[in-house]
């Protein structure tokens, strides 16, 4: 699937997350346990099924005051990885 900036990520129902000191642990029936660092956890926490990839990048960019193009590319790559692993659905 081609992920666009208008794609809206939503966490799949079969995914469980647990906050840890290093970030977040993810477990699903389809993948082994995955550990997310704090940066990835920040993106993950924006997957609400409402905000698009672009909106997530803008929110994170305003919080961190980083380069928007770089933030958008990072968010898009993370969304692609999560989708390929079956952790999220896209609309």
Explain briefly what this protein structure is.
With 91 residues, this protein is α+β, with helices and mostly antiparallel strands. It is built from three helices and five strands; from the N terminus they run E-E-E-E-H-H-H-E.
Helix-strand pattern: EEEEHHHE
Helix content: 25-40%
Largest sheet, strands/sense/barrel: 3 strands, antiparallel
Helix count equals 3
- Total beta strand runs: 5
Average pLDDT reading: 94
* Computed CA radius of gyration, to the nearest angstrom: 12 Å
Poorly predicted runs of 5 or more residues: none
Coarse structural class: alpha+beta
Distance between the termini: 11 Å
What is the chains' assembly state? single chain
Strand content is 15-25%
Notes on the protein architecture:
With 91 residues, the protein is α+β, with helices and mostly antiparallel strands. The protein has helices at 38-44, 53-64, 68-84; strands at 9-11, 16-20, 23-27, 34-37, 88-90. It has a three-stranded antiparallel sheet with strand order 2-3-4. The longest helix has 17 residues, at 68-84. It is globular. The N and C termini lie close together (11 Å). The model has no long low-confidence stretch (mean pLDDT 94).
Main attributes?
40% helix, 91 residues, two-stranded antiparallel sheet
Write the layout of secondary structure elements.
Elements: E1 9-11, E2 16-20, E3 23-27, E4 34-37, H1 38-44, H2 53-64, H3 68-84, E5 88-90
Antiparallel strand pairs: 1-5, 2-3, 3-4
């Amino acid at each position: 699937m081609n992920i666009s900036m208008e794609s809206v990520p939503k966490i799949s129902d079969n995914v469980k997350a647990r906050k840890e000191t290093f970030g977040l642990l993810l477990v699903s029936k389809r993948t082994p346990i995955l550990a997310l660092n704090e940066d990835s956890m920040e993106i993950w926490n924006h997957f609400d099924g409402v905000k698009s990839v672009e909106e997530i990048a803008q929110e994170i960019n305003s919080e961190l005051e980083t380069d928007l193009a770089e933030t958008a590319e990072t968010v898009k790559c993370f969304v692609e990885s999560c989708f390929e692993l079956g952790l999220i659905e896209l609309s």
